[in-house]
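Dear colleagues,

As part of the handover before I leave the project, I'm documenting each prediction I ran so the next person doesn't have to rerun anything. This entry is a single chain, and its sequence is reproduced below.
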Amino acid sequence: MKLFERYIVKNYLKNFFIIFIALDFFYVGVDLLTNYTSLPASANLQILYALFQAMNAVNYVFPLSIVFGMIVTNFSMIKSNELICMYASGISKKALVRPFFLTSFILTLFYIGLNSTDFAYAYEYGSNLKKFNRISTNSEDLFLKNNNQYIYFKKLDPLKKVAYDVTIFEVDSVDLKKIIRASSAYFVQNHWILENVTITHKPTVKSLNDVGFSMEKVDKLSTMEDFKPRIMDNVYQSEYALSISDGIDALNFFTSQGVNTSKIKATLFYQLFFPLFAPFLIVILYYKAPVMSRYFNTALVSSSFAFIALVVWSGLFLLSRLCANGVLLSEIGILLPIVILSLIALNFYYKR
């Protein structure tokens, strides 16, 4: 890495982290003041709630901090005449915008990677703490279809991956074959283990030699492969909170079951593609920024750039909400605007 690239990356990262931490603390502070009366009485739970809200705030302030960090860094270089000196020494605009783009792109990939973990459930955990004084809540009376099985859960704890009072109706076309009941079940190694199982076999009328109605009891039974608790729990939520890995599993599973997956797809597209607007917007704003401060009001121009970043972010966020509600296709409302931004950024980079 060249000397000027190290200098830009160092200053950009410093400004990014300062802005990111400030915005994150501001979000958490406003949330705590707004929901102070609803917080748990325990100090430990209050701290845990604040931590979850700080993690949830990352979804909103991280992309904006990436853009704001570039604006602050670039305009500080303009104001101190460092930028014009770099141009005078023969460094091109392409060479100067490259450290901004690559650093912001790596930061964005890191953020997307976080959404592949339980980090994506921070809002859900914080909401549960505020409402129920615990991280996880039990979902009740779940009824789902899995291939030739209709499954009923009286109670499900998705965090512990445990279910209680499980009933499975196994069918062949439209005929009921057997009913499986279990007092409890737990998810391990990609399948469910039922405990204290009672299996009721329904007689058929295809043969006179049929043994007829019968029951059997087993201690344990393995069934329902790839039927993950998080997928089952979130299908009943008003707002999907899925990590990228769980979102892909949910999309594949419910597509195979013929269930409408528009909301799951919107959540998955939002986590995968929405953050990418920041690196591409950085390139566009950089090429529109002035070279020196003598002929421009840098305070006004930088404020305009910040306003543009907010407008783009809020517009894309609004489109993602419309996609989540089924008004727009995810490919049109989320993916297409990112592709358009990337094409505009490439046009600036190669033709300016």
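The chain has two domains: 3-117+266-351, 137-242. The mean pLDDT is 86.

All the best with the project,
I.
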